[in-house]
Structures are given as C-alpha cells and as structure tokens.
Amino acid sequence: MDDIERIGNLIEAGLWLTFTLILSVKAWQSRVRLRRVFARLAGAFLVFSVSDVIESHTGAWWRPVWLLLLKVVCVVIFYFCLREYYRIKKSGHMT
C-alpha cells in the first residue's frame, strides 16, 4: 500500500472522529428524540473511524470481508438515522 493511501485513510479516520465529537455534543444538547438520532450517528461514525484505521493497515476496504461488512452496517445506520432526523424535523416534534 502506498504511503499516500495510508495517510489518506488516517486523515479520513480523523474526519470521522471529528464528526463523532460534533454529533456527541449535539446529542448532549438536544431533546430526547433527536438525542437518540445524534447518539446513534456518533456511535456509527466512531466505528467508521476505527474501520478506516484498520483499512490503513490492511490496504483495502473490502479485505478482510468483516471490514467490508462493518462499513456496510455503518452506512445503513447513517441512512436510517438521516431518514429519522428528517422525519422528526418534518413532524415538528422535537421531544
């Protein structure tokens, strides 16, 4: 694996970790319904960050297969959390 790819993965991991921290603060400051969404997103971004650190060592996001599955699960969680966030926002019920 090229050093630039490895460094890129570590930079990505730092970006996802930053998202984790921001979403954790949002969860802390939000009302109950949004708090759950932000907390789930923070957890998924933390796992996604760790997966990029692992990827920087393995050299591929699809190898080993469990790493690919971990990333897929995170993306699925992102999707459902985003859907739930917009559903809550649209309903106007933030509690």
Short description:
The protein has about 100 residues and is mainly alpha-helical. It has three helices and no strands. It is elongated and about 50 Å long.
Discrete helix count? 3
| Biggest sheet details | none
What integer is the average pLDDT? 95
CA radius of gyration? 15 Å
Care to describe what's here?
The chain has 95 residues and is mainly alpha-helical. The chain has one domain. It contains three helices and no strands. The protein has helices spanning 3-29, 32-58, 65-91. Helix 1 runs antiparallel to helix 2 and helix 2 packs antiparallel against helix 3 (65-91). The longest helix has 27 residues, at 3-29.
Provide key terms for this protein.
95 residues, mainly alpha, 0% strand
Topology:
Blueprint lengths: L2 H27 L2 H27 L6 H27 L4
